[in-house]
Structure to design on (475 residues):
RNA sequence: GGCCCGUUGGUGAAAUGGUUAACACGUUGCCCUCUCAAGGCAAUAUUCAUGGGUUCGAAACCCAUACGGGUCACCA
């Protein structure tokens, strides 16, 4: 069997939507499951949409996710260049071959004529297809118009009768009537190829064996197959992926939560968790497990188990998986994804490393992504705490004032401020006040934190520091 | 509008003709616990968009209808 080679071929827009990332993941998984190669190819054939730094952005995202390409703009291989704008002469050469074979033709139709045709089709409520106006121009006419410097595009000569069929791994047999296939533009008037052309040329030249892409290409694929056939090339295996939608079944957008990988990353989501979650969008493993490392995904991934129906991007489930990964983090890893958010929100200049470590670690299983550390730790950084009615009611119970006074003394008496001594102070307060259980802890917790819930009380008190604790007990 | 694809619980989703329709998220309850989170346990679809048909038997096969999405660019 030939070597399996897949590719991720984004256009450099400077933005990586989770749906795009998912395509990259699936392409990577198919390659690696078969010990194959995964390549990155930049499809920058639209000159009007160039974005500065977009290639680095894509490369960074893939690297962060562990989806390092074997070949690509930053990973030279034997099939380069891997940026389409650097391959222009190749496309021109193959377009010429097509013309010689009668499988493509020059078209001089201008915008104006095309627009008119489109409007007419619109009025008649029939789908617009280019009418082949320039298909049968004589060699002489073409030569003179070319010599006159007229603008032209090159169109693919599509068969008009019969049907085209192909087999897709996830959607099965796809049949499209040939009369519905447009003589699509292969080479634009600016000399750049369209996606429709470059994609086929490159996939063949780069020996891509499996084409993995969104299902918006499902119906266009027969056109690409005709290109392969014209050249006598072997066609790749097609794996079209279901769309990724938001919870309302509509196209994914900002209002469905962070739909861009970098937004998630910036919020302190873990790339491996995101990859894990995205791998489950439209695919289910044979087992009932859902938590997988990249290595496990490589091992278990089977494109035959990809769904046809659209996948729904569900932030709740992402949060669950991310929280699951967060619990297993080492302290240093945890610091790495939380501290930047703390620094951003609070003044940490008077806190030492141990203090921050302790703070972050007691909240490790309270948060599902890094940025959540900010809200949850607010009580350590604000000067005033305000009590709600429930807290006030609790404090108004008999014996509470006595308990607080006793506890305050015990806190005052602590010489060496550590968790063990704080624990000891609580125990002494318990003995001296006669309060226990909830009536012991809760009044202290409320006085000190202003809340009826939170992590272990001694840890919390330790982190607040002796002065603040005494201050709050005095109020 | 033409063409293509889809439709299983609050959500994702398994099961590709044969006992009580997996599993997970969420939700609710219980346990643990000062509390919250985590963790453990339990509950949560007389039913697979609707209507016909095929079959001894259908969520699964066929046909129609409805709804949702995709596609019809010198964008990818």
């Amino acid at each position: 069997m030939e070597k399996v080679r897949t590719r991720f071929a984004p256009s450099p827009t400077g933005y990586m939507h989770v749906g795009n990332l998912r395509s990259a993941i699936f392409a990577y998984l198919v390659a690696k499951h078969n010990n194959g190669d995964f390549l990155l190819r930049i499809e920058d054939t639209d000159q009007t949409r160039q974005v500065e730094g977009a290639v680095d952005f894509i490369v960074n995202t893939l690297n962060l996710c562990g989806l390092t390409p074997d070949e690509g703009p930053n990973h030279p291989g034997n099939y380069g260049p891997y940026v389409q704008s650097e391959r222009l002469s190749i496309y021109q050469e193959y377009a010429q071959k097509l013309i010689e074979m009668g499988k493509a033709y020059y078209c001089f139709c201008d915008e104006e004529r095309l627009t008119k045709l489109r409007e007419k089709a619109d009025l008649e409520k029939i789908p617009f297809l280019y009418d082949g106006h320039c298909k049968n121009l004589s060699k002489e006419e073409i030569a003179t118009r070319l010599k006159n410097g007229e603008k032209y595009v090159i169109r693919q000569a599509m068969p008009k009768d019969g049907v085209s069929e192909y087999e897709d791994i996830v959607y099965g047999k796809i049949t499209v009537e040939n009369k519905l296939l447009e003589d699509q533009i292969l080479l634009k008037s600016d000399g750049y190829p369209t996606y429709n052309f470059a994609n086929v040329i490159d996939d063949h030249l780069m020996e891509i064996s499996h084409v993995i892409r969104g299902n918006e290409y499902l119906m266009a694929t027969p056109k690409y197959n005709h290109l392969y056939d014209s050249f006598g090339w072997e066609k790749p295996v097609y794996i079209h992926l279901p769309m990724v939608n938001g919870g309302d079944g509509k196209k994914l957008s900002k209002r469905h939560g962070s739909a861009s990988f970098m937004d998630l990353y910036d919020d302190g989501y873990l790339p491996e968790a995101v990859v894990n979650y995205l791998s489950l969008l439209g695919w289910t493993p044979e087992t009932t497990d859902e938590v997988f490392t990249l290595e496990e995904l490589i091992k278990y991934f089977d494109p035959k188990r990809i769904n046809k129906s659209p996948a729904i991007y569900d932030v709740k489930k992402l949060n669950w998986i991310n929280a699951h990964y967060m619990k297993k983090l080492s302290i240093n890893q945890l610091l790495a994804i939380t501290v930047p958010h703390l620094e951003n929100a609070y003044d940490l200049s008077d806190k030492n490393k141990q203090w921050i470590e302790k703070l972050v670690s007691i909240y490790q299983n309270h948060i599902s992504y890094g940025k959540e550390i900010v809200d949850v730790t607010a009580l350590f950084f604000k000067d005033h705490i305000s009590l709600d009615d429930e807290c006030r009611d609790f404090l108004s119970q008999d014996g509470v004032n006595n308990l607080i006074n006793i506890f305050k003394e015990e806190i005052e008496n602590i010489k060496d401020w550590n968790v063990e001594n704080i624990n000891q102070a609580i125990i002494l307060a318990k003995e001296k006040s006669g309060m226990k259980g909830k009536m012991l802890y809760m009044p202290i917790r409320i006085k000190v934190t202003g809340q009826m819930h939170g992590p272990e009380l001694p840890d919390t008190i330790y982190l607040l520091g002796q002065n603040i604790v005494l201050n709050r007990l005095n109020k």
Observations:
- The radius of gyration of chain A is 32 Å.
- Chain A has 20 helices and eleven strands.
- Residues 18-33 of chain A form the longest helix (16 residues).
- Chain A has a mean pLDDT of 91.
